[in-house]
Write a structure and sequence with these properties.
The chain is 39% helix and 19% strand. With 199 residues, it is of the alpha/beta class. The structure holds flavin mononucleotide. The site of flavin mononucleotide has 22 residues, from helix 2, helix 3 and strand 6.
Length: 199
């Protein structure tokens, strides 16, 4: 009788141990399934990229990055623009580049893991009504298909204008309407615009 009881007890213990083991694996399997359905947060990040020759666009870009908790990246020209390069009343480098469809000023450095970003704010100063050619160097360096691009600019007075030329070099990207800021725009002004985007 004792032996029979011991045997029964052993059977009960073994069954409950197997049950526990099964319970332990179930949550892991569920978590794995959930993870497979939703892309990891790592791939939904926002990036603020900007080029700024004299600091105005940098100021706005920094405010956007703070307001959106985004990563911030500066497009740095391989050959920096001197004051003479930016003297638009002369035959300066900036003017020559803007008049040359083929101009693609080289960029120093690059962005690793561009694929982790879903949304990108893209900032630049207006040069003769358009984005500087270095912005085209940047846009042609990555695959932006499936990403949302939100352009912004600073200028003396010109509006942001058409982004059609930039759109043409980023096939598959979703461009939102852009926004022009004046040089000294406050963080409140920037925040108001960001909040109005409904991101
Ligand atoms: C070569 C050049 C061309 C410019 N063209 C224009 C223009 O067409 N319209 C305008 O309102 N401002 C123009 N500006 C002024 C800049 O857009 C303005 O100062 C801008 O805020 C500079 O931004 P940054 O400090 O980030 O470089 C021009 C500036 C330069 C250097």
């Amino acid at each position: 009788m004792k032996k029979l009881l011991l045997l029964l007890l052993s059977v009960v213990i073994i069954i409950s141990m197997v049950g526990c083991a099964a319970d332990n694996t179930a949550p892991d399997a569920e978590t794995a399934a959930e993870q497979a359905e939703e892309p990891p947060a790592l791939f939904n990040k926002t990036l603020v990229v900007y080029f700024s020759a004299t600091g105005n666009t940098r100021n706005v870009a920094q405010n956007i990055a703070s307001a959106t908790n985004a990563d911030l990246h500066e497009i740095v020209p391989e050959i920096p623009y001197t004051d003479a390069d930016l003297d638009y009343n002369s035959d300066c480098r900036a003017n020559r580049e803007q008049n040359d469809d083929m101009a693609r000023p080289a960029i120093n450095g690059s962005i690793e893991n561009m694929e982790q970003y879903e949304t990108m704010f893209l900032g630049y100063p207006i040069w003769w009504g358009n984005a500087p050619k270095i912005i085209f160097t940047f846009l042609e360096s990555y695959d932006f298909s499936g990403k949302t691009i939100i352009p912004f600019c600073t200028s003396g007075s010109s509006p942001i204008g058409s982004t059609a030329a930039m759109q043409s070099v980023t096939p598959g990207a979703n461009w939102l309407d852009g926004h022009r800021f004046s040089g000294g725009s406050s963080s409140d002004v920037v925040m108001e615009w960001v909040n109005g985007l409904g991101l």
